[in-house]
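User: Hello, beginner here. Can you help me understand these amino acid letters and fold codes? It all follows right here:
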Amino acid sequence: MVLTPPNQQHQQAIKNLYFYKDPKDTEEDIDALIDWLSKQPHLPNITDRVWLRHFLIGRKNNLQRTKKVLESYFTIRVEIPELFDDMTSDAAWIQKAVKVGKMSVLPKLTPEANRVHIIRSIENNDGEFDAMAMCKGSLKTIDYLMRREPVYGLVFLLDLKHCQLSYLLSFTPTLTKNLMRCIDEATPLRVRGVHYVNPPKFVSRLVNFFKLFMPSKIQNRIVIHETYDTLYEHIPRDMLPDEYGGTAGSIEKFENDIMEATKEDDEWYRNMPKADLSKRPIQPKKLDMDMAGTFKKLDID
């Protein structure tokens, strides 16, 4: 099984984080979302109740915040198409990317009910690193998760053992900012941690630079681990791959599992719903007025 479902401990952690809502009320909210989407001329008419439920839970069952992230989810795929085009499993960029990097999702959840997404560089002689491809691969993995379960939180584990300086330098400020926007604004998940392991000497300075393009809440959750011992304080050993001193099995199996599993979404990607920005209603303009504090902002039709 690629993803082990939450156990009783995880369910309790989820309730403690205020994700719980009476199922009847949730169904009413899903009805409201379907109705709202049907009235947005620029958004696709989505009726997949399971998928919409995942968005609702990810936004802590807040209907207005869910609408906002759904709007961003569809529009960003048009505004930044280079991060979302050609996403089927037979895409050429995927075959190219796996020569220098691999991705996986650990089957088990952390005690806080977070998923762990591992991205690692591998030793290669004929591969060419493509930062855009690595970003697309991660977004494709996140899409896979969101289509199958509510993602309460996501922990990134970045293994830099075979990472070259040129790899990190290819993440331009624009690409980094766009990736952060895709994750922070256009998905309902929460980034609970970003952990670097096997870091080369040059990593600390570059990570501090990349932080400039990340939301402050993510900046504060970045940790560089010189040894695996400190990693275990955040991710239990029994869910980590053998390669990181864990007991969960080989990381190659997890990588092969997720590569095979994402093939299930090929048809969805071929007909991926997107926004039609030409039909997006014009937003009312904001007018700032400072008249002894009487009027600060007025909506002008």
